[in-house]
Write a structure and sequence with these properties.
By secondary structure, the chain is mainly alpha-helical. The protein contains twelve helices and four strands; from the N terminus they run βββααβαααααααααα. It has two domains: 76 residues, no CATH class; 254 residues, no CATH class. It is globular.
Amino acid sequence: MRSTLFHIPRSIPWGDAAMPLFGPGLLVAIWLLVGGGWLAWTASRQGFGPALRQLWLPLAVVAAMLGWVLPWLDDGAGIPIRGYGVMLLLAATAGTWLSVVRGRRVGIDADTILALATEVFIWGLVGARLFYVIEYHEQFFAAGKPLTESLRDCVNIAAGGLVVFGSLPTAALAAWRFARRRGLDILRLADVVAPGLLVGLAIGRVGCFLNGCCYGGPCDLPWAVSFPAATEVAAKYPLAPGAGSVPVHPAQLYAAIDAGLLALLAVAYTPVARREGEVFALVLTLHPISRMLLEEIRVDEPAVLGTPLSISALISLLLLAAAAGLWWWISRQPERSPAGTFPGRAASQ
């Protein structure tokens, strides 16, 4: 477990002076060149208007991160690179790659998947972080805590603190709007990206393990893990004052294995799916079930609303109800012809 991997200095030597990397510095200048080239290349293929509508959000978000957010996170030793944040970026990259591969096999080009992934990733982060901040608002807006420090903690996603289920409303809305703008079948699009989402979740849970959040309860199994003193689990289950935690379930790794297995199942089910949306419906059915089982091991979320269930378990029940409705609706749709409709089927069949 390693919450902070290393620090990036805010400036580098430049002759007799120092060149700032963040804020109005070198990385922003490089991003302006890269972003301008990306925009020009896309405009040469699609026209300037469509290219600007497609790229303005990721270009603006990265510029804001480099110029404003990252300098704000300087902890005195530089900009900390967190294990959680690195795993989050790897998760987005791996999930997008798998979605690009699957999209090409059903006639959805890579540019479309990349644009979709950017929007869904950004809005999913917003929803997941907002849910976390609301659920644990007392640690962000404690009495006497300066507002600027509270806001800085709210945007410090790399330090950990996302609720996966919180991303669902914002990510789903972003995907629906994207499909509507592009004239795409939303169920076909959902089938394409569903395994990639699970791959991203599996890698993201490794980030939770590095960060020491989303932990399980004490146990004496051979694979039990003790977390360092600076983690959440050590604060709740200290071995001794100032020491690490007692041995606990590595619930984060259980969740990573679970998501990875579900991703493999979704990929394997794809060639035999008969209707658009079945792959996504399978994921929407099985993931809430496995999440409810994992909630029996995790102890980081309290019971809510007068029930013995955590907020994640209650949301899982709602998702199961939604999955039942989706299966019913899909069953009333015509079956797809077998000719080149799903990854794994040859277009010549």
